Structure formats: C-alpha cells, structure tokens
Amino acid sequence: MVRNTVRSASTLDSTLPGKLLRLVFHDCMVEGCDGSVLLEGNMTERNDPANTSLGGFSVVESAKELLELFCPATVSCADILALAARDAVEFAGGPHVRVLTGRKDGRVSLASNVRPNMVDTSFTLDEMIKLFSSKGLSLDDLVTLSGAHTIGSAHCSAFRDRFQEDSKGNLTLIDSSLDKIFADELIKRCPADVSSSITVNNDPETSMLFDNQYYRNLFSHKGLFQSDSVLFSDGRTREKVDEFSNNQESFFQKWGESFFKLINIGVKTENEGEIRRSCTSIN
C-alpha cells in the first residue's frame, strides 16, 4: 500500500522522491526515526526554519489513511515514512533495500531539538563527522548518505554562503572549490534579489535519477553545497568519492547498508511510543 501510494504520487509529481528522502533524514536525525517531524503544532520540529521547506507530508498521510482503512492501529507513521523513503529511491532508479518494521511513533516534537541535530550546508567535514558519529554513523556512512543529493532540490539560500554580494547587489564567487561556469549558472538562477521560493536541482546533470552522478559532480567541482565539496577536497573521504563515482553498483550496495542504519536510529518500541491514528497529531 505504501509503495503504490508513493508511485502514484511520484508519477504526478517528479519532485516527491527527493522530498520523501529528505523527510526521513530530518526525522531520524532528531529524536530518532519516530515520525516526530510529521507532528503539527506550535514549536514542533516542522516549525523550525531548517524544516519549513520540507515536503512529502501529504504522501505519508495518504498512505496512513489507506492503511487505517484496511488494518487500523497497526502501522506507525514512522514505519510509513521509512518505507516511503525506500520506495522513493527505488522509483527514482535506485536500489531496493530492506526495511524492518515495528517502529512506534514518538510523542515529543520540539523545534529546539532540530538545529543541534541537523547538518548545515556550510558544515566542515569535522562538524559532520561529529554529528554523524553521535548517531552511530561512520565516515563511510556520511559519504554514502550524502549521495542522497543525487535527487532533490535546494533553495538558493542554502548555498548563498559560497557567494558575496556587493553594494550594487551583484554576486561574486568567493568559494574557489566551486567550478566557475557552474557558479555563473547558479548566479543566473539565484541573483541576490531572487524570490526565496526559487530552487535549484542538487544534481545539475541527472536531477530526477537516483544514480552515482552526484559523486562525478564532485570531481567536476559541481557540488552544490560546501558540505558536498568538502567530501572531494578532504583526503579522508576522497577515496570513497572516487570509488562511488566510478562504480555505481558499489554505491548502491553501500547505500543499502547505510540507509538501513539511518532508518534504525533511535527507534522506539513497546511502551516508548504509540501508533498514531493521524500522522499530524498524537493520539
């Protein structure tokens, strides 16, 4: 039921796979994989500025409504989100990976917990390593899960730190790790006075396909974020980037392992949570 819901929605909106993948990451890194990012209300995770651009909520809710009809109070929203992200990757051409179910939905969702647990696009490698390590994820997991940027898009503000604005409102590239031609394209797409709603594809080559192009882009100095480019420039991660850029099968295999670890962070079971009747509110 979840897979059919994801496929139907993604056929109508090709941006959904990227949104669902980002949604599960933002859920699992805060409070664990417990559906806390799905809860609505003042001061919940959804209200933090880092999460206001998230999407895909309606797909999860649609799957929940369907499941409640056929098997009420049985499948948690946390499970639906993990399954939906898996199916989104597969729909976009990525590998099919195993997902264990049995998660309970959390009852806590606080905006104040988001920033301390979320990667910022301007993070150094050391900052990312520290955060990922606190979640039980290795350096290889960091490089692998960054490959999620092979699909999806980002608002111009997410990489504006790589440019400087002069007194006339013109942008100039100040990050030498970014390809100049690519940077000029970004400036055209995202001038200083652009609407905050404008987005750019994470992968300028195959934006809708889950493949290893992300890593090839890093070799061409076309990583959209500073946190992308550092994976190529730092010797600790460059070898893995090289491996994945040359071998998509290797990336897909490792993706299955790292994604499995991601969606099992801080899982709640038994009395630690509940199975919500609606994903947007606790019972």
TrEMBL record:
<keyword id="KW-0575">Peroxidase</keyword>
<dbReference type="InterPro" id="IPR010255">
    <property type="entry name" value="Haem_peroxidase_sf"/>
</dbReference>
<dbReference type="InterPro" id="IPR002016">
    <property type="entry name" value="Haem_peroxidase"/>
</dbReference>
<feature type="binding site">
    <location>
        <position position="30"/>
    </location>
    <ligand>
        <name>Ca(2+) 1</name>
    </ligand>
</feature>
<feature type="site" description="Transition state stabilizer">
    <location>
        <position position="22"/>
    </location>
</feature>
<dbReference type="InterPro" id="IPR033905">
    <property type="entry name" value="Secretory_peroxidase"/>
</dbReference>
<comment type="similarity">
    <text>Belongs to the peroxidase family. Classical plant (class III) peroxidase subfamily.</text>
</comment>
<dbReference type="GO" id="GO:0005576">
    <property type="term" value="C:extracellular region"/>
</dbReference>
<keyword id="KW-0560">Oxidoreductase</keyword>
<feature type="binding site">
    <location>
        <position position="45"/>
    </location>
    <ligand>
        <name>Ca(2+) 1</name>
    </ligand>
</feature>
<feature type="binding site">
    <location>
        <position position="211"/>
    </location>
    <ligand>
        <name>Ca(2+) 2</name>
    </ligand>
</feature>
<dbReference type="GO" id="GO:0042744">
    <property type="term" value="P:hydrogen peroxide catabolic process"/>
</dbReference>
<feature type="binding site" description="axial binding residue">
    <location>
        <position position="149"/>
    </location>
    <ligand>
        <name>heme b</name>
    </ligand>
</feature>
<dbReference type="Pfam" id="PF00141">
    <property type="entry name" value="peroxidase"/>
</dbReference>
<feature type="binding site">
    <location>
        <position position="34"/>
    </location>
    <ligand>
        <name>Ca(2+) 1</name>
    </ligand>
</feature>
<feature type="domain" description="Plant heme peroxidase family profile">
    <location>
        <begin position="1"/>
        <end position="283"/>
    </location>
</feature>
<feature type="binding site">
    <location>
        <position position="32"/>
    </location>
    <ligand>
        <name>Ca(2+) 1</name>
    </ligand>
</feature>
<feature type="binding site">
    <location>
        <position position="206"/>
    </location>
    <ligand>
        <name>Ca(2+) 2</name>
    </ligand>
</feature>
<feature type="binding site">
    <location>
        <position position="36"/>
    </location>
    <ligand>
        <name>Ca(2+) 1</name>
    </ligand>
</feature>
<feature type="disulfide bond">
    <location>
        <begin position="28"/>
        <end position="33"/>
    </location>
</feature>
<dbReference type="GO" id="GO:0140825">
    <property type="term" value="F:lactoperoxidase activity"/>
</dbReference>
<dbReference type="GO" id="GO:0046872">
    <property type="term" value="F:metal ion binding"/>
</dbReference>
<keyword id="KW-0964">Secreted</keyword>
<comment type="function">
    <text>Removal of H(2)O(2), oxidation of toxic reductants, biosynthesis and degradation of lignin, suberization, auxin catabolism, response to environmental stresses such as wounding, pathogen attack and oxidative stress.</text>
</comment>
<dbReference type="GO" id="GO:0006979">
    <property type="term" value="P:response to oxidative stress"/>
</dbReference>
<feature type="binding site">
    <location>
        <position position="203"/>
    </location>
    <ligand>
        <name>Ca(2+) 2</name>
    </ligand>
</feature>
<keyword id="KW-1015">Disulfide bond</keyword>
<keyword id="KW-0106">Calcium</keyword>
<dbReference type="InterPro" id="IPR019793">
    <property type="entry name" value="Peroxidases_heam-ligand_BS"/>
</dbReference>
<keyword id="KW-0408">Iron</keyword>
<protein>
    <recommendedName>
        <fullName>Peroxidase</fullName>
        <ecNumber>1.11.1.7</ecNumber>
    </recommendedName>
</protein>
<keyword id="KW-0479">Metal-binding</keyword>
<feature type="disulfide bond">
    <location>
        <begin position="77"/>
        <end position="279"/>
    </location>
</feature>
<feature type="disulfide bond">
    <location>
        <begin position="156"/>
        <end position="190"/>
    </location>
</feature>
<keyword id="KW-0376">Hydrogen peroxide</keyword>
<keyword id="KW-0349">Heme</keyword>
<feature type="binding site">
    <location>
        <position position="150"/>
    </location>
    <ligand>
        <name>Ca(2+) 2</name>
    </ligand>
</feature>
<dbReference type="InterPro" id="IPR000823">
    <property type="entry name" value="Peroxidase_pln"/>
</dbReference>
<dbReference type="GO" id="GO:0020037">
    <property type="term" value="F:heme binding"/>
</dbReference>
<feature type="binding site">
    <location>
        <position position="27"/>
    </location>
    <ligand>
        <name>Ca(2+) 1</name>
    </ligand>
</feature>
<feature type="active site" description="Proton acceptor">
    <location>
        <position position="26"/>
    </location>
</feature>
<comment type="similarity">
    <text>Belongs to the peroxidase family. Ascorbate peroxidase subfamily.</text>
</comment>
